[in-house]
Amino acid sequence: MDIRNATLVFALSMPFSVLAEQARSSQAQEVQAKPEEIVITGQRLQQLRTQMMDAEIKAYDFFNHFNDEKRFNISCSSSPSINSHISRRLCQPEFEIQAMADHAADYYENVSAYFDPANWDGNKNPPPRHLPAEGVIDLQQGDYHHKMKQVAEQHPEFLQAVIEYGKKRDQYEKATTTKGK
To answer: Average pLDDT in the 45-73 region?
Structure first.
């Protein structure tokens, strides 16, 4: 191949190599653009979730401040879900927490009595000291809802905090459901 043919081959192949490089460059830019979009969306979802949780806590704080019955005070706790490292947040009134604690104490007492050699006379299951947790909770639900309504009617700041929480929850749910589609 003489020098003219080599120059012609080089000149003709150069635009293709430039086009190939441009194509690789634009693909790299697209790849880089996609993670940025995911990060921004993830940050926005996290921001919405944080705002929703803050609004929920604010509403519960208002309720607890205006509530005059300790059994209806609401507290929140986080614990990991079973077989998971992801924490689950649970907010409950005091009467629910107490009902579950009493139920656990009864269960422990029954199991202890069953395996205690002193009870081997046939009386291995002492009667529970408390109603089942679900029954205790159900019995107090009506009073609890009545108290919520009463506090909302008497304290507009609590009602406004509940409304704000509802709006934040709706925004978060809308963002998570449209993201999945």
So the answer is: 95
Residue environment code for 46-72, b if the CB has 16+ CB neighbours within 10 A, otherwise e: eebbebbbebbbbbbebbbeebeeeeb
CB 153, CB 54: distance < 8 Å = no
Q: How many domains does the chain have?
A: 1
Rounded distance between C-alpha atoms, residue 51 and residue 45, angstroms? 10
Question: In terms of pTM, does the model score above 0.85?
Answer: no
φ, ψ of residue 88 to 5 degrees: the values are -115, 130
Show the tokens assigned to 140: 């107090």
Q: What is the C-alpha separation between 170 and 38, in angstroms, rounded?
A: 21
Where in the sequence is the domain holding 144, given as residue range(s)?
A: 3-180
Q: Which helix (H) or strand (E) holds 16?
A: helix 3-66
Between 21-25, 60-64, 153-157, 175-179, the lowest mean confidence (pLDDT) is in: 21-25
- Residue 126: what are its φ and ψ, rounded to 5°? -65, 150
| pLDDT tens-place string over residues 104-131 | 888 888 777 767 766 655 555 556 666 7
